[in-house]
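Tokens in:
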């Protein structure tokens, strides 16, 4: 039987080759790639990341080669490796394609069995080229060509597997070779410049220290090369010559190879470009910041005087590994983390490979921090590259081995994408293409070795992998710090000794911001040592929770509060489920617990508020509340109880829940200060109404109540401007019912008012409600309750200037509203008299204010930072506003308002003072009110004095919503605003 004829391979059409440009077939014909002999070559071309780009480059290359094209054409038919390398480079990098076309004979570098030269061989190659140069300007073109050729060879080996079945070049090899190439290039530049500057004279000893990725031997294809220059000659002449050499070397390198950045040197760009070794040592011993020691972790001699470079490393490295003991280590590390996160605009975070969430910087920062923390006690961590450091941390038990392997894989994947993006145009970039740019994303997928997997094409595989890797980095970033801590707690409980030691765990917690690491470990043991299910859930939750806590002002207090909440809610399955399933709930709760001493106690008795930390369809549930409806519910709930004690307890329970909700929303930046004050006032009014109703019911005889009672709000309550630490200033007014003796009515009303005050002021699970009636006629010496007629007679005959001023904020808040309204009409005659108040009254108000300033400030208080009585504080602003009301309200009805801010608006509309002054007073009032509220939230008790610099002030800054939580900046801003407002007060109030 005859053998069947061998089937000849079929020549593929341009469509099957993935070529879409109209001229593709003509280009193939022009190259002669239209015969059966070219089938395999064409299939290789089709596997290039961008086949059309590769084909266009080949056409241009053939034109550049001219008669020599046939040699390359023939080689491509025979050398499969050459095809893979050439098509991969041309289909991935427009810039390298242009370079090859400009230097067409360089294709020979990609043919045959090629390998990467060693660092010594690279140095020899570049030195040989440098020594040919007769001047710096003439050296640039050949050195640039040499450098691009070496980058092209590396890229060809790195990319070849995308086209042919060539071995994938490990990421570490790529980074190391690029760093070695940079060393050789720097050495060549130094060689050329030294000969140019010094001629036949002596060359000063100068060492180039590589920093950053070059120092760690993990350089990108396109990156600035960070360096520090160190000299050995301290003489003026020697240092001057070395500085000139360094500057000209940087310029030559920028023209021929890459940008050289010396900004990591002492004092940054403002510092000397070149320093002696002794000068470097002195700087790092006295002035260096934490980030500068972190940068030194990657320092490595790269070029120049090797012995001097070695002495530099030997002198400075011991300082690096003790940096974590510096007093400012923790706050500086936290500040660095926040700065990195804020560098990237929100709109591009998902595209940023380096600085975005779950990006390269997350990995690098975490690894370097762990090295700094544990490196003093473990020399195995003294490695520069991120990949090597991850391996060392895993081996040492500082992170889990699986976590180290997974994070290494994610890091190398992200660096691979970074390399591919940079190769395209040899431009420095870390930005993924726009999500809807499918062509760019498809090119990237092919360049990054993505293959269809049956469910997705290469583009789909890339998108899925990006999501998976970003999630993994974000998850491991928190787990990296805290999972080993939890494991060390469990091992200590079981008496095991594997993994991180207790001492190492304490060091790590201290570096992450915990001032009491031993207590923190105790809390972790308690949290993870409960029932099997709870312990497992806590083990899963705690790495992320602890990470969020570490970024709060007081992680120690936050962790203790979380432990107390977890113990209190041990039987409530919803609690841990909400933290596990609702990321927003967990993150917001940690922020609140680590910032406030006020809210955790409220949450202990009103834990259901935690469920409002979740997002609802209309935004955060904490804000999706009808405050008027809540007030009505509070009054109705109390009314269900006949016993006034139980009724008031019910009202306070709902108040406690509302306090927790309002304070939580405030701390999380969901409510502005005016909304906070209004909601606190609304709640206070509801509690007063509920308590008054309950006491009246309990004290009403069968014949009915002897009198009507109204509660008039004064001060901040009357102005609708209550803060967390405010008392409720009130007046009680009554009116006998028909047929009731006035004395009997007043006596009964007195009993009701006394019981309201005493029962609301009883300490409980929530802050007590202090009802203050000291603004009544005759102060504490006068009767607690008066009839409306008695008030009218008193104010008409005896009202003192301070009492007239106090009435400016009188407003009915509870009880009989009709009686309250008549009280206000009566008060109008006193506070807004026809013709205005007398000049003597105005003068007396000014005298009283001077006395308040001199006598009321607490002993030891700082008048610059006392939010109530201090310079430009609340009292200054409010007295100034009230004085203008006293002077002009009789002829300007718009000034008949009890709110400070509304009155300021009316004063501005009436042009009584300049608009700029209005804004200064408004800013000061809002700033002081916000700071005063923040003080209560942080300290858990009423206080008016801002603390000095430190953790407490930072916490107040965070609670007040100050950017970065920088207490120093917050305090500077407060002082600036109140100082300007005080100038306005002195001018307007002082007349």
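Residues out:
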């Amino acid at each position: 039987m005859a053998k069947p004829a061998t089937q000849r391979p079929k020549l593929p059409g341009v469509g099957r080759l993935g070529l879409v440009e109209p001229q593709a077939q003509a280009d193939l014909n022009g190259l002669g790639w239209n015969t059966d002999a070219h089938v395999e070559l064409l299939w290789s071309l089709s596997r290039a990341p961008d086949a059309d780009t590769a084909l266009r480059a080949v056409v241009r290359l053939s034109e550049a080669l001219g008669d020599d094209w046939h040699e390359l054409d023939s080689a491509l038919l025979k050398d499969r490796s050459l095809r893979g390398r050439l098509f991969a480079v041309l289909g991935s990098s427009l810039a390298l394609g242009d370079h090859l076309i400009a230097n067409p004979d360089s294709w020979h570098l990609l043919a045959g069995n090629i390998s990467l030269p060693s660092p010594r061989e690279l140095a020899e190659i570049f030195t040989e080229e440098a020594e040919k140069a007769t001047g710096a300007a003439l050296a640039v073109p050949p050195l640039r060509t040499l450098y691009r050729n070496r980058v092209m060879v590396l890229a060809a080996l790195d990319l070849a597997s995308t086209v042919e079945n060539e071995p994938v070049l490990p990421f570490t090899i790529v980074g190391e070779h690029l760093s070695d190439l940079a060393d050789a290039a720097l050495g060549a530049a130094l060689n050329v410049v030294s000969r140019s500057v010094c001629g036949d004279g002596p060359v000063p000893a100068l060492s180039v220290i590589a920093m950053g990725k070059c120092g760690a031997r993990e350089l990108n294809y396109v990156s600035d090369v960070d360096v520090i220059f160190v000299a050995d000659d301290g003489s003026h002449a020697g240092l001057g010559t070395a500085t000139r050499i360094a500057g000209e070397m940087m310029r030559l390198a920028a023209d021929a190879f890459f940008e050289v950045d010396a900004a990591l040197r002492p004092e940054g760009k403002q510092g000397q470009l070149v320093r002696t070794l002794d000068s470097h040592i002195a700087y790092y011993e006295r002035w260096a910041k934490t980030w500068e020691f972190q940068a030194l972790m990657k320092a490595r001699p790269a070029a120049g005087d090797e012995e001097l470079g070695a002495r530099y490393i030997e002198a400075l490295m011991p300082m690096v590994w003790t940096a974590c003991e510096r007093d400012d280590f923790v706050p500086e590390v936290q500040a660095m983390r926040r700065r990195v996160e804020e560098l990237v605009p929100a709109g591009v975070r998902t595209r940023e490979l380096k600085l975005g969430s779950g990006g390269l910087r997350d990995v690098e920062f975490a690894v370097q921090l762990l090295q700094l923390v544990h490196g003093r006690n473990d020399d195995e961590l003294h490695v520069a590259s991120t990949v090597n450091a991850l391996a060392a941390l895993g081996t040492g038990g500082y992170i889990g081995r699986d976590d180290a392997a997974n994070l290494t894989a994610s890091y190398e994947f992200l660096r691979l994408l970074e390399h591919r993006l940079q190769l395209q145009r040899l431009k420095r970039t870390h930005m993924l293409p726009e999500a809807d740019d499918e062509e760019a994303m498809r090119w990237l997928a092919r360049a990054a070795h993505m293959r269809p997997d049956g469910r997705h094409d290469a583009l789909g595989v890339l998108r899925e992998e990006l999501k998976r890797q970003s999630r993994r980095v974000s998850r491991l970033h928190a787990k990296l710090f805290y999972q080993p801590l939890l494991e060390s707690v469990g091992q200590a409980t079981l008496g095991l000794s594997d993994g991180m030691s207790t001492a190492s765990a304490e060091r790590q917690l201290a570096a992450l911001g915990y001032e009491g690491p031993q207590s923190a470990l105790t809390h972790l043991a308690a949290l993870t040592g409960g029932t099997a299910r709870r312990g497992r859930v806590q083990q899963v939750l705690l790495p992320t929770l602890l990470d969020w806590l570490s970024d709060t002002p007081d992680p120690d207090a936050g962790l203790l509060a979380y432990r107390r909440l977890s113990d209190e809610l041990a039987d409530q399955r919803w609690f841990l489920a909400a933290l596990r399933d609702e990321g927003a709930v967990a993150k917001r709760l940690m922020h609140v617990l680590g910032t406030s001493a006020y809210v955790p106690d409220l949450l202990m008795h009103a834990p259901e508020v935690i469920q409002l930390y979740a997002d609802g369809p209309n935004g955060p549930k904490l804000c999706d509340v009808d405050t008027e409806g809540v007030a009505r519910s509070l009054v109705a709930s109390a009314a269900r109880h006949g016993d006034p004690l139980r009724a008031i307890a019910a009202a306070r329970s709902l108040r406690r829940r509302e306090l927790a909700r309002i304070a939580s929303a405030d701390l999380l930046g969901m409510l502005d200060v005016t909304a906070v004050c209004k909601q606190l006032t609304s709640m206070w009014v509801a509690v007063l109404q509920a308590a008054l109703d309950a006491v009246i019911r309990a004290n009403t005889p069968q014949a009915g109540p002897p009198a009507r009672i109204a509660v008039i709000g004064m001060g901040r309550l009357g102005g609708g401007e209550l803060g967390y630490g405010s008392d409720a200033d009130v007046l009680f007014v009554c009116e006998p019912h028909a047929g009731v003796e006035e004395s009997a009515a007043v006596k009964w009303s007195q009993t009701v008012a006394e019981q309201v005050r005493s029962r609301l002021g009883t300490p409980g699970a929530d802050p007590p409600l202090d009802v203050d009636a000291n603004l009544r006629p005759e102060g504490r010496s006068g009767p607690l309750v008066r009839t409306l007629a008695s008030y009218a007679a008193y104010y008409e005959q005896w009202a003192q200037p301070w009492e007239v001023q106090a009435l400016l904020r009188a407003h009915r808040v509870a009880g009989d509203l009709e009686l309250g309204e008549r009280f206000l009409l009566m008060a109008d005659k006193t506070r807004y008299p026809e013709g205005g108040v007398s000049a003597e009254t105005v003068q007396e108000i000014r005298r009283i204010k001077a006395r308040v300033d001199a006598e009321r400030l607490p002993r030891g208080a700082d008048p610059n930072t006392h939010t109530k009585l201090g310079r430009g504080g609340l009292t200054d602003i409010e007295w100034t506003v009230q004085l203008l009301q006293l002077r002009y309200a009789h002829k300007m009805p718009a000034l008949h308002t009890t709110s400070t801010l509304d009155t300021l608006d009316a004063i501005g509309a009436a042009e009584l003072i300049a608009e700029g002054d209005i804004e200064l007073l408004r800013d000061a009032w809002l700033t002081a009110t916000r700071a005063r509220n923040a003080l209560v939230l942080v300290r858990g008790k009423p206080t008016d004095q801002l603390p000095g610099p430190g953790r407490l002030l930072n916490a107040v800054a965070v609670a007040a919503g100050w950017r970065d939580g920088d207490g120093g900046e917050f305090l500077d801003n407060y002082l600036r605003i109140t100082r300007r407002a005080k100038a306005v007060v002195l001018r307007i109030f002082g007349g």
